[in-house]
């Protein structure tokens, strides 16, 4: 529950409330909980059965991640495959420092960002025009919306909003890291995040009024 507005759901989307900063993918686990280093070593040696086991373990977690960035399952599946190609090529680079899944997630995030760059989907100017129609007179009370429904709305965000929102809120990147990865300023990152929050607030309000 949000202590600021008594929102009863798993998170609060209102920009002044820090709960939004703590939204995390429930699929995230630590390496100690989910990974056997011997499996990783076996994959590095080219063992097909181990590679399939690693794929089967990671794919259900990484596909939703890819979908959040591109908003389309078919495209997400393509990015997932590209991400696994990169992951298996770079397995030897994992030194066991920190979470393996965290290391793997960064590969899939980077793969999704590469796709968006190729499609010129990260042009922030497009989102600036989209944002002009956004209302800002949103009530300060939370709405009863669950994690899965909010994620569906996140996938509907304009590309620039969606990318920054995913990176900051769900993946936990700082604005400095986002600016470096996207080639934008930290101010632009903060602006995109703020507009994404307002966009989500309006969408939830519109659904309530239907």
Number of helices: 10
Q: In total, how many beta strands? A: 0
Q: Tell me the distance between the termini.
A: 25 Å
Strand and helix order: HHHHHHHHHH
Tally of distinct domains: 2
Write out the CATH superfamily name of the largest domain: Winged helix-like DNA-binding domain superfamily/Winged helix DNA-binding domain
Classified by CATH, the class of the largest domain is Mainly Alpha
Instruction: Characterize the overall form.
Output: globular
For the sheet with most strands, the description reads: none
CATH architecture of the largest domain: Orthogonal Bundle
Rg on CA atoms, Å: 18 Å
Structural class: mainly alpha
Please report which band the strand proportion falls in: under 5%, 5-15%, 15-25%, 25-35%, 35-45% or over 45%: under 5%
CATH fold descriptor of the largest domain = Arc Repressor Mutant, subunit A
| Mean pLDDT level | 77
| Uncertain stretches | 1-23, 26-34, 125-143
Give the % helix.
55-70%
What does this protein structure show overall?
This protein is mainly alpha-helical. It folds into two domains: 33-118, Orthogonal Bundle (Rna Polymerase Sigma Factor, Chain: A), CATH 1.10.1740; 122-209, Winged helix-like DNA-binding domain superfamily/Winged helix DNA-binding domain (Arc Repressor Mutant, subunit A). Helices cover 64% and strands 0% of the residues. The protein has ten helices and no strands. Helix 3 (48-70) packs across helix 4 (73-90), helix 3 (48-70) crosses helix 5 and helix 8 packs across helix 10. The longest helix is centred in the C-terminal third of the chain and has 24 residues, at 186-209. It starts with 30 loop residues before the first helix and ends with a helix.
